[in-house]
Write a structure and sequence with these properties.
The chain is of the alpha/beta class. It is built from 16 helices and nine strands. The protein has a single domain, classed as Alpha-Beta Barrel (TIM Barrel), CATH 3.20.20. Helix 13 links the parallel strand 6 and strand 7. Helix 4 packs parallel to helix 7 and helix 8 packs across helix 9. The protein starts with 17 loop residues before the first helix and ends with a helix. About 50% of the residues are buried.
């Protein structure tokens, strides 16, 4: 393990936490729980804090990113913080012209679609990661025994944004490029993998106790395309943290057909979205790896008895895996009542 001596996994602060034990395949006394997108728009304290500050500016302000990360931990009593960031932050730090447009999402100044355009991309220099490392360190200093999860977008999702120039429903241009110009595609994915890997590693060295690779758009791919054109680059991305021996979670949206391939890139934990039953996802993974998931975000607005039964059923299904970390099958919707999330945490922690 090549982590600093004062890292929370090394000095004992987080190594025995419920989350890290579950990620390593143990069954702790309580089932750990956290929520993707737990930090953000569902919290009134977040909306108040963000007034007048652009999203990417908030991500790159160590004081702001730290406070936003800590807000849901304080409010909900979840078993982990997830560092407040965005999948396009490393693109911006590498010099890509990108902005997050309210109501639309990440938009590039110009798409990247040719070998010349890929060759013109700059590497992500270590110095550029200083505000990220500072935000992580500031957060970890206040979390105590609660682990922080570092976060990055997977190479395919980054490449899809770059090729499309912004959000897309079907990622046709990206999927066309991988077949029509495989050399250009490979060069772009190599660049994206190295950017993602450096971004993850910086967070781990600064104090994060686990890493999550988030592939938002992998669900648009067939298993054959994922295996041939995407998996090798996701594997390259997480290779940046292998020597640190931190648990790596791999999650994608609409990826029920890809679960085995997502495990095989070297992930320690696989996140399962809400489109398949949790125990079916566990079965597809061979029942040998810890899983994370998979409360349906749509049910957060349902009557409590409906949501309660759903959460308890997921806890029961999760018993078929070596270990289970409860989470949503995607992120917290912005209109979610925060008191519902707190109530879910209490329910999960009380269940046996």
């Amino acid at each position: 393990m090549n982590l600093p001596a004062d890292h929370p996994l090394v000095d004992g602060r987080t190594a025995a936490s419920a989350l890290i034990r579950a990620y390593r395949g143990e069954r702790p006394e309580i089932t750990p729980i956290w929520f993707m997108r737990q930090a953000g728009r569902s919290l009134p304290e977040y909306r108040e804090l963000r007034v007048g500050t652009a999203m990417l500016d908030a991500c790159l302000d160590p004081e702001l990113s730290s406070e936003i990360t800590l807000q849901p931990v304080r409010r909900h009593g979840v078993d982990a913080g997830i560092f407040f960031s965005d999948i396009v932050v490393p693109l911006k730090l590498a010099g890509v012209d990108v902005d997050i447009v309210p109501g639309r999402g990440p938009v590039m100044g110009a798409p990247i679609r040719t070998m010349a355009e890929v060759a013109a991309l700059s590497p992500l220099e270590p110095d550029a990661l200083a505000p990220v490392a500072a935000g992580v360190a500031r957060t970890v200093a206040q979390l105590g025994s609660t682990p922080l999860i570092g976060f990055a977008g997977a190479p395919f999702t980054l490449a899809a944004y770059l090729v499309e120039g912004g959000p897309s429903k079907d990622h046709l241009r990206a999927r066309t490029l991988m077949h029509s110009e495989p050399g250009t595609w490979a060069a772009l994915m190599e660049w994206a993998a190295d950017v993602t890997g450096a971004f993850l590693r910086a967070q781990m060295l600064a104090g994060a106790s686990a890493a999550q690779l988030f592939d938002s758009w992998a669900g648009s791919l067939s298993l054959a395309d994922y295996t041939a054109y995407v998996a090798p680059w996701s594997k390259r991305a997480i290779s940046y943290v292998h020597d640190l021996e931190v648990p790596v979670v791999h999650f994608g949206v609409g990826t029920g057909e890809l679960l085995g391939a997502m495990r095989d890139i070297g992930a320690d934990v696989v996140g399962i979205d809400d489109r398949i039953p949790l125990d079916e996802g566990i079965r597809r993974l061979g029942g040998t790896i810890p899983v994370q998931g998979n409360i349906n975000p749509a049910l957060l607005a349902a009557p409590w008895p409906v949501l309660e039964a759903h959460v308890l059923a997921i806890l029961e299904r999760g018993k078929t895996a070596p270990a289970h970390v409860v989470n949503l099958g995607h992120g917290v919707p912005p209109e979610t009542d925060p008191t519902v999330l707190t109530r879910i945490v209490e329910l999960v922690h009380a269940a046996r």
